């Protein structure tokens, strides 16, 4: 984490000498007494030790032999307590020292104060000086001023009258301090090594255990280390997924995402004065007169491209997305936004894509559309004709992804690295040859970066710097660089903790100062939104740009480059003034003084051509086999379709049979019901028949009785008599 910037005033070492004079250090033997009269005993002792360390160096004064064992033990405990209070002296977290002091020792502050008084009385205040070990003078100066400011924040305003006198004396001793630093750096000690570099940008103090170097009054730059410069003006709102571009020593920042809200503001950072300013702009209204003024649609995940003193904002996520990609242009002279009219079939709207400027064309790859579908399509926009062209490149393209980075090498090759899908992140590298429109996936070498998405990249000659990003779990801490000719990765530096440089959605641009390249990062999100600016000055010499020949074999070309184009040849060309010469990676770097070297290169190129022919032959066989497999797959799909149709027919017949069976079951149920009704009727019929039979029998009986009376009358027996007898 970057330390807080000190209050305004002169730069080091002048600031230190002003503070020392104010505190009472005049070089006399009474310095300790003068300081003790202004400050408390513990503060005075620490200031004295740091002053001696800064001006004299490591303490060689032996400890007083009159000290008793108890006094030495108490003094040792106090030093631990004091270094715990000022933990930056040993660069160790306070929590560790608190445990040591309050759980392992019993020294109280009152007891320590009494010990200090005794030390001042016996002039034994060199003990704490000895405790500083081999701390370099620049670090001691910084700590001295910091402790003074903590004790007396207004010291500089009181001592401003004497600064001019102190500055003169400071010049004489400054050389000695830096020479002592160099000597101390070579010694083995427990304190972090300090590097100081003085440039026209400012002075930078950096320790090995610091993540981001903090500037000390003025802008500071250390090679291959990130620094947070001193910036004035109102900074933009913290954000990520914004666009950034450099035009005429100014970094423009447009749009972005803050707490899920898309932004449409435009800010500029002057890289000479390091001052922020907000750009007030107008928006051209393409509608009819009398309507409301046009508004600039907020967006995030877009790409900001500098082009002909203009800024092009390409694509991006919006609240109400359009059907196709929109290209907006900002005119720097008139401070006006407008929408470019393009022709041809424009790509679907998206965000998180990569946009690479190659000559007068924009190469757009991948991204995520409004429906959150990942893309891996390839489109080119000709900025001269404003015409879109969809490219159907050969080879295997990168898988659908967004939040990746892209770079152009030798105005012919577009490199795609990293990115993420809905489930994972990538660290693969793909190369598109713009002449043959062919995708390849070369073999990476060196310290290959871990999978990441949301990172930022910028090219410096043949070197492609990659910063930040994340893997859905944590931010990436290292700053990596790829040599695009050899395809070898290396790590430039690493930061620690949750700092903006280890976040997603940050921006990275390339600027220059006094002919040296400077990387500038801004913003990002790693659990919190950031609006910090960090700079890094790469130490790589990359003033010459490489040009790849017509042979599109990146892996083989890199091997040739290692043989025929070493760094020392580039340095020798620079020394003889051939900075403007453009060299080719395979053939153009011919040493005219050595014909043998040329023959070796010619032989090597011939060998490479033979190998390429063999590879082309193998590729042709693979393509033929692929076509055969595709045909078999098509036949299998046809058979599968026929079987599916047959299955559907059988399913239809089965459904018809099931319907018929259901109808039969209904008919059977009806017949059963009718049968039960017939059985009931049969029983009733039998009952009626029995009743009929009984009636017929009764009728027969009566009939027979009537027949007996007739025969009796014929026999002479009258019927009346019989009734009387009865």
Automatic annotation (TrEMBL):
GO terms for molecular function: fatty-acyl-CoA binding. Keywords: Kelch repeat, Lipid-binding, Membrane, Repeat, Transmembrane, Transmembrane helix. GO terms for cellular component: cytosol. InterPro entries: ACBP4-6_C (IPR056819), Acyl-CoA-binding_protein (IPR000582), Acyl-CoA-binding_sf (IPR035984), FERM/acyl-CoA-bd_prot_sf (IPR014352), Kelch-typ_b-propeller (IPR015915). Residues 12-157 form the ACB domain. It holds the Pfam family Kelch_KLHDC2_KLHL20_DRC7. It comes from the Eukaryota. The chain crosses the membrane at residues 86-105. PROSITE patterns: ACB_2. Residues 698-726 are annotated as: Disordered. GO terms for biological process: lipid transport. Belongs to the ACBP family. This is ACB domain-containing protein. It comes from Salix brachista.
